[in-house]
What does this fold into?
Amino acid sequence: MTDTLARPVETRELNRVVVRFAGDSGDGMQLTGDRFTSASALFGNDLATLPEFPAEIRAPQGTVAGVSSFQVQVSDHDVTTPGDAPNVLVAMNPAALRKELSQLEVGGTVIVNHDTFVERNLTKAGYESDPLEDGTLDNYTLFKVPMTTITKEVCKDLGVKPRDAERSKNFFALGLVSWLYNRPAEPTLNWIDAKFNRQELVAGANTAAFKAGFAFGETAELFDFTYEVRPASLEPGTYTNINGNTALSWGLVAASQQAKVPLFLGSYPITPASDILHELSQRKNFGVRTLQAEDEIAAVCAALGASFGGNLGVTTTSGPGVALKGESISLAVSLELPLLVINIQRGGPSTGLPTKTEGADLMQAMYGRHGESPVPIVAAYSPAQCFFAAIEAARIALKYRTPVILLSDGYLANGSEPWRLPDVATLPDLTVEFASQPNHTNEDGKEVFWPYLRHPETMARPWAIPGTPGLTHRIGGIEKEDGSGNINYEPANHSYMVNLRHDRIAHIVNDIPPTMLEGDVENADLLIVGWGSTWGAITSAMIRARQEGRKVAHAHLTHLNPLHKDLGDILRRYPKVLVPEMNLGQLSRILRAEFLVDAKSVSKVEGSPFTSGELYRHIIGALDD
Amino acid sequence: MTDTPTITKSDLPVTTKADWTSDQEVRWCPGCGDYSILTAVQLLMPELEVRREDTVFISGIGCAARFPYYMNTYGLHGIHGRAPALATGLAMARPDLHVWVVGGDGDMLSIGGNHLLHSLRRNVNLNILLFNNQIYGLTKGQYSPTSELGKVTKSTPAGSIDEPFNPISVALGAEASFVARTHDMDRQHMMEMFRRAHDFPGAAFVEVFQNCNVFNDGAFNAVTKRDRRASMLIQLEHGKPIRFGDDNEKGVILNRYGSAEIVEVADVGEDAVLVHDENRQDPSLAFALSRLAAGPFEPTPVGVFRAVERPEYATEASEQLAMAQEVWGPGDMHKLLHSRATWEVA
It folds into this structure.
């Protein structure tokens, strides 16, 4: 790494470490965290990440409001959350220290960019005295590192201007932390070369800064130990590190491939869903068409129009967008065409917390439309699992010719984890058949096509796409007669159709997997019921409680409408039922209404996921209650 | 599905109006202008080189929006205002189809105004027919975004204070490539405009003056009545001087500010009269002509205002797909899954 003779430093082994990088929005913290994660993933650790950033692109520099952070848990064993309290906080300025310090474990390590701790920045961060000197950090291990100065120094000979050189200080921090945790340097150096191959100066500055950070650790005599987290013993296979939005995008592409139906995405940019539009717009060689529509309504309507034409129509958005799409979704309910509506949930109401996570759109998905307008609901539960959730949602939409709502959230969307890549040959066959023949004989003996004549098992109507001779027909949102599809306003007919639309969605219950049930299935004293991204925190909290001899089981719902067929029996099997949700108790209300069980709600609506510690305390509290 | 071979007329079965007429009972009010528009379309279709199954009519909500039910083609009756968005998705997914969009002035200029603008801007291959009757019919007589100032309706008992849209000006402002106007009293002219719209490769916008005999009867009488047409309708014909009048005595000139102005030809001389050029890249001429009449009570131009070809949206999108396949090869799911840094666990 360096010509300087490295001083021997003892390496201590850890089972896991939680590192949080925090700095100003412009400091490149997401990139730094992402690179640390990638290097750890390639090293073979299990991990989970939690990126957090302000809603403003450039909030006022140096303020607490402008702090952007990235937390990663690196482990030698299976982890399901990004960790509760970080062990290490890297604070690039006083604001980052002020905002994040309370999260850090007592006795944890704080590494600060000492250059930024000047009066002006301290004032901006709201400090009246220097926290590095006034005792604030007495309970922590503090390392003061002049990151900016050293970075500028090592960049000087490269011909990089000091102002530009300063931008590379995040790579200094990355280099230092990489040294501290014995991360291999090559993946990061290779990445810098590839990423900045057309910007020689930038590549040079970043490389120099990274190496300087690494060398600083070796030579500065500040650190007495380095740490190592051994590779995790994961299932054999090929792994990649993936976040939820990418996994979800790839799941959509896979569904289209498995169905042999082109994918059409209509979308309007909205945080935190936009990355799916970005990802899919790069998949044109898969025949994927993307339309950045003029608004949310156009986005869903274009997707529905494409479905009418024989594509798998998809629209991606967040809660506010789903609200705008409501009428169009109920049109799809009436047309009985496949459509995927993907909601990457965020904090509401209104603009709410656009960059923060929440799971408060379950009732919207269930009931957020006019009239009786039932749609199947699938919910993803981990970043990588978004891939399979997308395929499952597409399967239901295509097979049952219905709009399906797929719920993910900001935490799953941006959080990442290692994913054992599936063998493409094992993906389900979703082949659909378009109608090609008339299906009804009129009284006069004429062969005609009836657009609402149903498949006897799935109750799905035929998908007859324009361009097919002999099957010309008209469909619309006005109430129709079953079979012929002709407009029909008769009271009895409407009642029949409302019930039919309800029944055909309820009927899907026979075609969804049983409830995921883990833990003390036979004799638990407490059942935790979750849905969505709470899976990770519930899992690790339950493991902890069970390690202490508590009898706990965990049911996680991947399908919210219809609910799993075995769920009623499961709920009644255990004396206590606890339902942790990132809302004020929406699933618990549904469970109470559907099954008459005393499902107790545990809420968190702080824009960040449950920690496993919080849930552990709730579990113990409920058991001892 | 996109590689439809070019259809020549000899490949097509001979059809008549009856073949293009569905078995559904037409339920517009007796005397509605929509009937004559429907007839014009049903008479035109056999003359176009298209198959019924490759033709789709898409609509939103309103009286005009019932149109698809009466065409023996594929059809989709959607929700209020969203027909151009539904049609954009279909036209992108299926560039082999002939997609028509039908709607009224409330549907396309009020609740769905945004979608109209953007489908025109993108130049999606749609034939968009806007039935303008200057009133809300299906909701029983409220003023519309094209109703004249002062209009007294159920929702404007003291008269409308909303400045109306000029649909032709709106379309031109939205970068429309093909813009035309016709009216429900002249079947031949309607058929000609619809044919031109069909032949145009891109978004083709046709405003149709349509009489609502129940809630806004005679709104266009001043210009469309047979005995008024010569003096009140200004026929736009490509390459010809723009002249009209009972004795063809009037003409249109461009004044020094670029505005179109009606003059006595005798006063300015024949050479001063503007020669219509629908192919001008610059939309200023078409826009100036669209401003000639403040409403259908002044001499009003009809015909093709603008027909300027530019890249069609669905074609361009398809070309990007073809290009990607050429560069990257056809999509390979295994390769995609392994496209980022991976590592092996033994």
Summary: The domain at 516-624 of chain A is CATH 3.40.50.920 (Rossmann fold). The first helix of chain A runs from residue 29 to 43. The longest strand of chain A covers residues 16-24.
